[in-house]
Write a structure and sequence with these properties.
single chain, 163 residues, mainly alpha, Arp2/3 complex 21 kDa subunit ARPC3
C-alpha cells in the first residue's frame, strides 16, 4: 500500500467521521441523519475494494469510540462495522448492475438489513418496529447522501484520476 493510498484512506475516513458529527436529526435510541455517507459513496465509486474496506473499518471504529452505543461486542459488528463496510465496498456491485447509484443502493440495503437485524436481536425490537425505526433515519440519510454524491462526484472523480 502506497503512502498516497494511506493518506487517501485517512482523509476520506476523517471527512466521514467529521460529517457524522454534524447531525441534522438524531433518533432517541441511536441513529441520526447526517452527510457521512457522501465520502463513503465517493470511495465506493472511485477507490479499490481494499482501500474501501480499510475506510469502512476506520470509520466504524471511530463511530464506536466517539459515542457509539453497543448492546454487547457482537452488536458493534452488526450495528457499526458491517453496515459501513457494506456501504464503502458497494462498488463491487457496479460491474454487475452497470450503474454506480444502483450499486450504492444495494450496499445501503445490506447496511439497512444489518440495522434491522441488530434492532431485533440486540435491542429486542419486533421486525416491523425495527424496520420502521431504522428507516426513519437511514432512508433520509441515504437520499441526502446520494443527492450530494451526484453533485460532487463528477468533480471528485477527476481528482481520483489525477492521484
Amino acid at each position: 500500500m502506497s503512502t498516497r493510498e494511506i493518506t487517501r484512506i485517512a482523509l476520506i475516513s476523517a471527512i466521514a467521521v467529521v460529517l457524522d458529527m454534524f447531525i441534522v436529526f438524531r433518533m432517541p435510541q441511536g441513529g441520526s441523519v447526517s452527510l457521512y455517507l457522501v465520502p463513503l459513496f465517493i470511495a465506493a465509486s472511485n477507490d479499490s475494494i481494499r482501500n474501501c474496506l480499510f475506510i469502512g473499518i476506520v470509520v466504524a471504529v471511530a463511530q464506536v469510540v466517539l459515542g457509539g452505543v453497543l448492546a454487547n461486542p457482537a452488536s458493534g459488528l452488526i450495528d457499526y462495522l458491517l453496515p459501513v463496510v457494506f456501504m464503502t465496498t458497494a462498488g463491487i456491485f457496479k460491474p454487475i448492475v452497470k450503474n454506480i447509484y444502483v450499486a450504492l443502493v444495494i450496499g445501503c440495503l445490506l447496511a439497512f438489513a444489518c440495522y434491522v437485524i441488530s434492532g431485533m436481536v440486540f435491542w429486542e425490537t419486533p421486525f416491523v418496529g425495527s424496520v420502521t425505526y431504522n428507516a426513519t433515519f437511514f432512508i433520509p440519510t441515504v437520499i441526502i447522501g446520494l443527492i450530494v454524491f451526484a453533485i460532487v462526484n463528477p468533480r471528485i472523480k477527476n481528482i481520483y484520476k489525477g492521484v
